[in-house]
Amino acid sequence: MPRRKRDSLTETERKSLRREVQEALATLDLQVWQEVCRSFGPYNYARTTRKKWFEENKDRLETAREIVSFVGELMEKLQKGESLDGIKTSVIRSEIVDVVRQEEEARGLSDGKLNLVKLSAFKTLIGFSEEPHKLEEGPYEGMTEVSEERRREYEESRNRESRKGQYRAPEVNPVKREERKSKNYTMIIIGLVNEFTHPYQNVEIELDLDAGLSVEDVEGCIWKPDESRIEVGFLQASLSAEPYEKEIVVRLRGAKSETKRKIRAIVHYDNCEKGIRDSGDKEVGRLTV
Q1: Are 96 and 21 in contact (CB under 8 A)?
Q2: Residues 207, 251: one domain?
Q3: Is the residue at 217 inside a domain?
Q4: Which end of the chain is more exposed for a tag (fewer CB within 10 A), N or C?
Q5: CB-count exposure of residue 80 (10 Å: 0-12, 13-18, 19+)
Q6: Same structural domain for residues 79 and 173?
Q7: pLDDT confidence of 1, banded at 50, 70, 90?
């Protein structure tokens, strides 16, 4: 059974990680990074389409690949070391980006600094270049321009949303349903609800399972065992009165014991209003295995 990874660093681990990142940054021209980060962010369906956003930002691709590769390769290297192999990937990634931002500041590059949302958006940009068919997907189905009718729909939806309260994360139900499939396997349905009329981008669900449970596979989404996260990606919205709900089928491994176990879930997403990587509250579900 894989051991649960920690979501924080000791001071010794943090100092070691930061020293290694600083050494890796020493020979890099961060001013080039600043140029591609400046005025860059995820696409927003209120203002643009996937296709138009890609066309406007494809000149950033070369440096975007450099940035994403730098962070990814450094994360892989750090995780291979014994001192950090028990730390969650998201914690290491966040720390790397924080060191980059501090180094940019130290070099007098105070605006256009890298952050987690920009890093995530660079990955999206690279993904569109490698899989151009995805430019034809989404609510605008390959359109280059947003029609005035769409803009009016968006403004109306924003007015409706303002009456619902503060912008927040999609709601997650860790155990909407459960079904025993065999002696050692249980299938659960995770419910993910978007009550708003705007979609969410780069959605992930971080799972924290009681001892004795492990994820065997996830249908229709990508399971990242090293991070204990389900990569949902794009979560669409509903323009009707009913909220949009996505059901995610997860197969869990756990010997039958007829005892109650807990599954804790946190939703992570790009908060395009604040320009940050944001998270919802931890939700707890219970099941009998």
Answers
A1: yes
A2: yes
A3: yes
A4: N
A5: exposed
A6: no
A7: very low
Phi, psi angle pair for 271, to nearest 5° = -90, 95
The DSSP bridge partners found for residue 267 are 205
- Residues 123 and 177 grouped into a single domain: no
Rounded to 5 degrees, φ, ψ at 138 are 90, 180
User: Among 182-196, 216-230, 270-284, which range has the highest average pLDDT?
Assistant: 216-230
Classify residue 102 as exposed, middle or buried by CB count within 10 Å of its CB (0-12, 13-18, 19+). Answer: middle
| Of the candidates 232, 205, 234, the residue with the CA atom closest to the CA atom of residue 90 | 205
- Distance (Å, whole) CA 185 – CA 266: 23
**What is the span of the domain harbouring residue 241?**
167-288
**220 conformational bin, left if phi > 0, alpha if psi -120 to 50, beta if neither:** left
The CB-side HSE value for 98 (13 A sphere, CA atoms) comes to: 12
Asked if residue 149 is part of any domain, the answer here is no
Condensed to tens digits (0 to 9), the pLDDT of residues 202-239 reads: 899 999 988 888 899 999 899 998 889 999 988 888 76
Judge whether 3 lies within some domain: no
- Please report whether residue 55 resides in a domain: yes
Count the Cβ atoms, other than its own, within 10 Å of residue 195: 16
Tell whether the model's pLDDT for residue 137 goes beyond 50: yes
> Residue 233 to residues 29, 123, 205: CA-CA distances in angstroms?
31, 12, 10
Q: Cα–Cα distance between 178 and 228 in angstroms, integer? A: 20
| Number of domains forming the structure of the chain | 2
